[in-house]
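User: Okay, second chain of the day. Same drill as before: sequence in, C-alpha cells out.
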Amino acid sequence: MQWRKIIFVTGLVVVCMLPTGLMAQEPETTMEEVVVTATRTETALDKAGGSSVTLITAEDIAAKNQTTVEDVIKGVPGVDVLSTGGPGSSSSISIRGADAKNTLVLIDGIMANDTSSTNRTADLANLTTDNIERIEVVRGPLSALYGSNATAGVVNIITKKGHGKPSLYIGSEYGTYDTWKTYGGASGQWEKLHFSFSASQTDTNGFSMANDRNSAIAGGPNTDEKDGWDNTTLSGNFGVDITENFDISTVVRKIKSEVDVDDYNGFAADQWNYNVWPFALVPYGAKKQKVESDQWFYRFDIHNRFFEGKFDSRFFYKGAEQERDGFDADGNPSYDYEGQSIETGWQGSLMVADWNEISGGYTYFEESYDQTNTREKDTDINSYWVSDQLFLFDEALIVVAGLRVDNHESFGTETTWQVAPSYRIDQTGTTLKASYGTGFRAPSLYELFADAIPAYLFLGGNPDLDPEESEGWDAGFEQAVFDGKLTFGGTYFYTKYKDKIEFVVDPATFTSTYANLQGDTTTEGVEAFIQWLPMKDLSFLLNYTFTDTEDPDGEDLVRRPENKVHFNSRYRMFDRATFNLDVYWVDECKTIASAVDRFGNRVEELDDYFLVNLAASYDINSHVQLYGKIDNLFDENYEEAWSYATPGFSLYGGVKFTF
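Assistant: Same drill. C-alpha cells below.
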C-alpha cells in the first residue's frame, strides 16, 4: 500500500509539472487581494512589505469543504496543527516550530487565545468555517503591532461582510461517524444597512480518542467507546453607513460545544481509578468524561474618514469570554475555568503622501480568569504603537516599519520593533523580501497564579516569572515567469527565544511548577513553494517546509516534524463543478517525555504519515448545490500525538439551497 501511495503522488506531481502549451490561455484579470493583518491597515497583498503572508479566501474554504478552521490551515507553509483526538478535541497551532503560546489567533481582530488556559494558547477545536470570508496567516514576530503572544506569528480569521442583493441559504450534510451538520444564514445590503448572519449545528458520534488501531496501547473496553462532539455556532457581522464617511459596525460569534474525552495515563485510555492506592484498572468502569465549553467573541467599531479619505479613524471595543467545564468518569463536575479579555482603543492612519502612510494607536487590554474554588486573577496592559508604510521608486521598494511600547501592570515597560522591506524587479519578475522583529510574551495568569495541587506535588503558579523575549528574521524571494502563470519562491527564517517559560519538575523532590529556562531556544528553517496556473480554471500548488528546532540543552523540540509537504490542485469545470485535491506528507517527530506504551516502555518518535483528501461540488442551478468529500483516502493510521486517534477513511455529502 505504501508503494502505491508513493507512486500516486510522484506521478501526480510529474504530470502537474509537464509543459502544457495547448492548455495555455490569456491571463485573466482578477480583483486585487487585500490583507489587514501584516500592517493593521487594508493593504493590497503585494504591497504588504516583506512579511511572509498566506491568504486563504472564501473560495479556498468552500473548495475544501472542511468543517473546522484547523483542517483548512493545515497546508499553510510553516504551520503545524496538533490535535489530541477526534472532532472537538483540544487543537493548537504552531508557527515556524515555536510553541502554540507564541501564536496569536484573532477573530475579526479579537484575541481568541484563552486567558484561562495554562499558557494562554488558542484552542481551534470548536472554531468552524461558518461565515468566514478569509483567513490571514502572517509568519514571523509581530509583537510590534500586536503585543504579547505574537512572537511567532498571527492568524486572523475574518467574518464575511454582507453586500449586494439580500440572499438566504440553508443546507445539510451527513457522513462517516454518524456526522450531521445543518446550517443556514443570510447576507446582503439594504439601503444603508449591511448584514451577514449564519447558524450551524454539528453532531457526530465520533470515535474514541484513544487510538484503537495502535496495538501498543491498552485496548479492549478502554478504547471501544466513541467520543462524540456537538457544536452550535452563531456568527454575525452587522453595520450601518450613517454617511459616506461615517459608519458603525459590530461582529459577534457564539460557540457552544460538548465533547467526550478520555483520561490520560501515558496512553489515552479511560481505564484508571485514581481514588485508591495503588491506582487500579477499571476497564468496564463508567466513561462519562466530557468537556463543555462556551465561547463568546464580540466587537463594536465607530469608523470615520476625513480629508477626502486621507485620514482614517476607528474607535473600538472588543472582547472574549471563554468557559470550560470538565466532568469526571461518573459525570460529576471536576473543574471549571473561566477566561475573559477586553480591549478598548483607537487606531488611525494618515496618507501623508501617495508614497507614505503612517498609522498608530492606543489600546487598554484587560485579562482575567477564574479557576475552580479560587478567587479571580487579572492584569492589564497599556499599549502605544506606530507603523509607517513607504512606497518608493514607483512602488518597487516597499518598507513597513513598526514600534510598540507595552506597559504591563506586573512587568513594567516592554518595547518591540519590526522592519519588513520588499523590492520588486519588474524586468525579471523577481521580488526580494525580508523582515526582522523583536517580541515579548507575558506569562499567562495560570503560569503566575495557578492553585497548588498537593496530591500531585504541583506547587502552583510562579509569580516570580519573567516575560519571554524573542528576536527573529527571515529573507526570501518570489519569482514569476511565463506572464505570471508560474511562480516559485523560498524563505529562510530564524527565531531565538530567551527566558522561555516551561513546566519543570524538580528531580530531587518531584515537585513541579513553571520556570524561565536558562539559555536560548531556537527555530530555523526554509519555506518553499511553486504555483502553476496553466489555464483559467486550473491551478496547482506545491509547498515544502523544513524546520529545525533546538532547546537550551541542544535537544529537538517535541511534536515538530522536520519536513512537511503539501500539494493542492483545483479545477473549475463549466462554471458548475469544482474539484479539489489536497495531499499531505508529514515527517516523523519527537514525542513528549511521558509517551510510553502499555508496558511502560518509552516511545520516542511518531511515524511519518501521508494523507489524501478529495472534495467536489456541483451547481445544479443557481439555487441548488450538491457537494461531497473524502478525507484520508488511503485510510492512513497516523497520530499527531502519541496514542491519540485521528480520523480514518471518511466520506461526507451534502446539499445547499440558496434563495
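Residues 1-30 have pLDDT under 50 and may be disordered.

User: Thanks, on to the next one.
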